[in-house]
Design a protein that fits this description.
The complex is a heterodimer of chains A (314) and B (253). With 314 residues, chain A is mainly α. Chain A contains 13 helices and two strands; from the N terminus they run H-H-H-H-H-E-H-H-H-H-E-H-H-H-H. Chain A is globular. Chain B starts with 5 loop residues before the first strand and ends with a helix. Chain B is α/β, with parallel strands linked by helices. The chains are: A mainly alpha (314), B alpha/beta (253).
């Protein structure tokens, strides 16, 4: 395999990791809790820009900058959640969609913040002199997948517990959950903040990997790509969402490679958006549960009940 | 006089210009089955919603177990020991029957975010105990063969039973039941009330809205009749059944 192809493949691997983190965060919000957050890109942007601005103006180590990026995203998530969580599902989608655009326009027009449309240079997280491109990719894969594994363990623990059961109950019928003593506003705010923090982490990793960001990298399409990952993989199934992230990223990148070999009367990138739309319509019609179905909650107590059931049915 | 478990004092609630509940006062004694009846639109469900905190009353107050509760949100009222079962069962249809039951438990340590991630040992034993308790209740309600099925697969009557079972899971002091026997066959309706009687004997109190008077009057200790937002008559079921205003309320003049 030639070096160029290897480096390009590793680039895809890094992207899969970054977007898998964002997709897991959306799965927490939408898949488990039923919060239709159509402003995912806002928190991705908040993380990326916070990381970039902090690294430009201070000399703190990269992991502190990543943590600050998560905190700022969570803070914005909290502010958005104050009015948004009192809204009905469809209005929540509209409000979050608007916030994504508003935040992008703020960083675009406020030059003093991050050089507006000129974009901002971001130093890579881990760097040494004489680092080859291949080494850079490998280091990024290590960093991104370390974060991804931590995020995956976190969301798995959260959702495979009585806490996750409450989240699903809120998704099914939040008034009934409230009538059963669950403080729905508290739960939804927690999930919104945590989901935003994880998206912010993804944004920070993205910024340091790209080494340059500008407002045009945070168009609403980012949100929809992440949504497609969740819908394809299977809402409320963390493993499925990882698969969704892999498939959608490969599909997106594949379209860009094919562009050079296919002679089409239209731009394949635009064709890709159309294909994405068709794919989602087909999935929602024929397999709305996604590739991997939501699994029943399993805690140790429930496993005990299952064993007891199996014994008594023999 | 012994202090009553639930006291509704001069409560009023209006929607626009209509007083759905108009200065209604009533008491639910400890350990009783107290019934609330009346024609459609007389304000029974609105009164229930005020009692468990879904609506704030525009006037008057509600006391539960000696505390004023009319400013509390539903989940806070729940924490005090009052549970409400909806008229149309509001189950979590994609979750299993067991999950539905476990969700209703009060004070489950695993419900917290931090506990779900860090202190996982803290709630495992509790979860097991609750699962045992849920199985016992499901057994009593004859739903135990459906423990691990999604609640959406249950029939109408079974859904009613699960809605009540879920309410019992919380170990409440008082259960508010909105038409527990509506929409089920007469036999099952009577069976539901027999179960209610069983739990009353164990010390629970019930406050029930019901239109199936032929069943209700066999089990209720005290009946309030509501009309146009007001309490029109109250008394023992035998007495209310003989009252001429009672028929006037239901059938008109």
């Amino acid at each position: 395999m030639n070096l160029g192809l290897l480096v390009y493949s590793l680039d895809i691997v890094v992207f899969i990791g970054i977007f898998a983190i964002v997709a897991l965060s959306l799965n927490l919000e939408y898949g488990f809790t039923g919060l239709g957050n159509f402003g995912k890109v806002a928190f991705f942007l908040a993380g990326a820009y916070t990381y970039a601005i902090v690294m430009e103006r201070t000399g703190i180590p990269f992991y502190l900058a990543l943590i600050i990026a998560m905190l700022v995203s969570a803070g914005i998530g909290f502010l958005v959640s104050l009015p948004a969580l009192r809204l009905r599902e469809d209005y929540l989608a509209i409000v979050t969609l608007a916030i994504g655009e508003v935040l992008r326009l703020v960083v675009k027009t406020e030059d003093s913040l991050a050089h507006g449309v000129w974009g901002i240079n971001v130093p890579p997280a881990i760097h040494w002199s004489g680092m080859s491109v291949l080494e850079m990719r490998m280091v990024n894969i290590g960093l991104v997948y370390f974060c991804l594994i931590l995020c995956f363990i976190l969301v798995q623990l959260m959702t495979r517990s009585p806490y996750g059961r409450v989240l699903r109950a809120i998704r099914e019928d939040e008034v009934a959950a409230e009538a059963l003593g669950k403080n729905r506003v508290k739960y939804k705010a927690q999930i919104f903040m945590l989901g935003s923090a994880l998206a912010g982490l993804g944004g920070g990793l993205y910024a340091q990997y790209m080494q340059y960001i500008n407002p045009y990298m945070f168009m609403p399409m980012v949100t929809f790509t992440v949504w497609i990952m969740v819908i394809v993989g299977g809402p409320a199934n963390n493993r499925g969402v990882l698969i969704g992230a892999v498939l959608v990223t490969l599909f997106e990148r594949g379209a860009r490679i094919i562009k050079d070999y296919l002679l089409l009367p239209i731009d394949p990138i635009n064709l890709q958006y159309i294909l994405f739309g068709v794919l989602v319509i087909f999935l929602l019609a024929y397999r709305p549960q996604g590739l991997l179905k939501e699994r029943q909650l399993e805690t140790k107590a429930i496993e005990g009940v299952q064993q007891w059931k199996n014994r008594s049915s023999e | 006089m012994e202090e009553s478990l639930l006291r509704v004092k001069e409560v009023g609630k209006h929607f626009g210009g209509l007083w759905a509940v108009n200065r209604a006062s009533l008491d639910v004694a400890r350990g009783s089955i107290t019934a609330l009846v009346g024609p459609n639109g007389s304000g029974k469900t609105t009164l229930f919603n005020v009692v468990f905190g879904l609506h704030k009353p525009d006037e008057g107050c509600v006391y539960f177990n000696g505390e004023r509760i009319d400013h509390l949100a539903p989940h806070q009222v729940y924490a005090k020991g009052m549970v409400h079962a909806f008229q149309i069962p509001r189950l979590f249809y994609r979750l299993t029957v067991l999950d539905n039951m476990l969700l209703a438990a009060r004070g489950h340590k695993g419900d917290g975010l931090l506990n779900s991630v860090v202190f996982r040992q803290g709630w495992q034993a509790q979860e097991r105990e609750l699962a045992d308790k849920a199985l016992e209740l499901l057994n009593l309600l004859e739903l135990d063969h459906l423990t691990l099925s999604p609640a959406g697969e249950l029939s109408g009557g079974q859904r009613k039973l699960l809605e009540i079972g879920r309410a019992l899971m919380a170990d409440p002091l008082l259960l508010l039941l909105d038409e527990p026997a509506a929409g089920v066959n007469p036999l099952l309706g009577r069976k539901i009330f027999e179960r209610i009687e069983l739990f009353r004997q164990r010390g629970l109190s019930f406050f029930i809205i019901e239109h199936r008077l032929e069943i209700l009057f066999d089990f209720a200790d005290w009946v309030y009749v509501m009309d146009k937002g007001k309490i029109a008559i109250e008394g023992k079921p035998e007495k209310v059944a003989k009252d001429s205003t009672f028929y006037k309320v239901y059938l008109g003049d």
